[in-house]
Amino acid sequence: MKVWERVVEARLRKVVEICEQQYGFMPRKSTTDAIFALRILMEKYRDGQRELHCVFVDLEKAYDRVPREELWYCMRKSGVAEKYVRVVQDMYERSRTVVRCAVGQTEEFNVEVGLHQGSALSPFLFAIVMDQLSEEVRQESPWTMMFADDIVICSESREQVEESLERWRFALERRGMKVSRSKTEYMCVNEREGSGAVRLQGEEVKKVQEFKHLGSTVQSNGECGKEVKKRVQAGWNGWRKVSGVLCDRKISARIKEKVYRTVVRPAMLYGLETVSLRKRQESELEVAELKMLRFSLGVTRLDRIRNEYIRGTAHVGRLGDKVREARLRWFGHVQRRERVPLRASARLDIHTALRSSTLSLKGTHKEHEGLYSVRLRTRDGITEHSAYVYVKDGPAVVLGAPGSPLHLECSDVNRDYVFLSWEPPSAEGASPVQGYVIESYHDINFYHITHT
């Protein structure tokens, strides 16, 4: 079954486009990217001495609460062919389970809600569901970041983040999900006096100075001392699990080295690619590691053996060097990553008619301000007609149509809905319009949204 699930998953990934805000179970993305995005955002706001408000949303039993009918609807809305929807339905049809307890097992009963636990297909199905449920409320990364069911909402003011949290709650709970009131937490960077608290349906959200995000502790003051202590503790926990092997004198140092590098080292290095370590903190990690190595080799400080000899015997390099190697390795992955067009957070709908077309940008926010270029591309690839539109928090402005005349009208409704309409130039002998290209420019960065 798992082989068949992986085949179906591979085919679904070819046709379904998941939003850029989703970091979980996506190609070219990892927890390191999500942790780094949050840390660098907080660092920039601390440097600018500006407030940043973050809410970490937790969903109750996220996988077990997904309604089956909602899953089929989200798959169809994402563009999944009906035959694949029926394939997944067959996997979930007549699913039954038992519960093991102290006095034995219960009788079998039907499971009519939630995704299959342990299934190779479930993570991507959950990503499809979250992509559709959050379509109307999410903002561009890093203002909204998701890793499966872990959601981070950021804003520059408490009122905005509180409003965003309520919109997320409504969007999720009306479709069968449940936001945990007890585990959802709020953190503020560069907090000023009297900033107040964030409330969710009248209930105050717990305010914290640190939060464990994807296994990495993030502090509101920008320090990383607690994260270093957590990495040391994680290393000791891993060492204790395999201490029976590491402390056995009958086992060779080579075997101990492999076990140590497989179990202990990854626990100590997790997430440190995104942390700016001071010399003192780097020394704390190395001291803890040397204690583990000395215990493993049966050597004490009374034996007066140098640290370099201990590392050489265990075939283990300095931990500080390994942290730098991990940073360079991750940087290399980022540099070699395939560049793919980003999908805008603003919802873009293009409706083509025989002689005219319309474009709507729904849900535009302040970060969507900027210059948009609308270009009509013909089939011969030569003739192009274009117009520029500047979208601001107010009426959108048509800046002009260079080249051949391109009639374009622009209107703004309630300051968050930009509506464009145009007609392709009618000239005898002109090639038929093949597609429309909408480009958005934000500062010096840009992304392309192409519809053909």
From TrEMBL:
It is an enzyme of class 3 (hydrolase). It comes from the Eukaryota. GO terms for molecular function: RNA-DNA hybrid ribonuclease activity. Residues 404-452 form the Fibronectin type-III domain. Pfam families: RVT_1 (PF00078). SUPFAM superfamilies: DNA/RNA polymerases, Fibronectin type III. Residues 1-218 form the Reverse transcriptase domain. InterPro entries: DNA/RNA_pol_sf, FN3_dom, FN3_sf, Ig-like_fold, Rev_trsase/Diguanyl_cyclase, RT_dom. Its EC number is 3.1.26.4. Gene3D superfamilies: 3.30.70.270, Immunoglobulins. PANTHER family: ENDONUCLEASE-REVERSE TRANSCRIPTASE, REVERSE TRANSCRIPTASE DOMAIN-CONTAINING PROTEIN. Belongs to the beta type-B retroviral polymerase family. HERV class-II K(HML-2) pol subfamily. This is ribonuclease H. It comes from Hemibagrus guttatus.
